[in-house]
Amino acid sequence: MNPIRRLLLIALCFALAAPARALDAGREDVRAFIGEMSDKHGFGAEDLGRVLDQAQSQASIVALMSRPAEKALPWHEYRARFLTERRISRGVETGRLQAEALERAAELGVPVPVLLSIVGVETFYGENTGRHRVIDALATLAFDYPPRSPFFRSELENFLLMSREESLDPLAPLGSYAGAMGIPQFMPSSFRNYAVDGDGDGHRNLWTSWADVFASVANYLREHGWRKDEPVMARADVTEADLAGLEFGKLALSETVGSLRARGVRFDTALPAEAPAVLVELAGRDGPEHRVGFTNFYAITRYNRSQLYASAVSDLADAIAAAAPAAPPPPAE
Fold first, then answer.
1. Residue 47: what pLDDT?
2. What are phi and psi for residue 314, nearest 5 degrees?
3. What DSSP assignment string belongs to 21-68?
4. Percentage with pLDDT > 70 across the chain
5. Does residue 166 carry a catalytic annotation?
6. pLDDT surpasses 50 at 8
């Protein structure tokens, strides 16, 4: 192992083992945050101070956020992590068990397999939703992680507002080490802007209410440009294409169906020539694979800004749809 990497791993291990410490609500930056919450949103300064005094600043969270990124997985390895028989079969089973909630959520225009795929990739259908208290994760990153302190301070603000709006104890919710919450892993700002009360009980519960989960995912995608009955991606043949000037890896839909066809890229779609598109190049086991992503591909990248993520969601959705039993025909009249 590279000596520098070995030292980094040793440092990470020590950080992960370091004990948590109570956040000091008397710190100047914490007091300033409390003052802002009081002035902007009417929070009681003493009450909020008591809440933040119970938050734990955790060195392990900072280590997880700041450790050197592992070498990016090639597409064929990334895809293999998510396109497993277990994940596909669990998706089919979750679809069967939550059929009513899925049917209602799909009325927003997002197909059932895509809704299942998103939560399948995010948390294995709710199996891995995170074990950190959200207040600890966000307070640690807001006050003890300078590189992204403004972002996480905003998320902490949204989390406290969310807790008040939903009548939640801010010390109770659990999530990821970055503060993402529930089965669909919404950050607090996304929760407040896009979460939906799918079961009509007056609350948005992304931890245990499947109706709320699927309605919220569907609403998120719709609000980020999802188009009903349109495809996500199409496989492409670039054997005789002119790819000069194309920049792979970008998420923007900088081409159109017509412009890619004019370059000689061959793919099947019923979308019109003016439909926005992007040519995606993926590192396959036997060489580059090419696909064309459309508006719904871009919508999925708003959930996670990665071509690999959106491609995996698309493939898992296709696999779940293919594995699901066919719906029975309507009864004869």
1. 96
2. -60, -45
3. EE--TTSHHHHHHHHHHHHHH---HHHHHHHHHT-EE-HHHHHHHHSP
4. 90
5. no
6. no
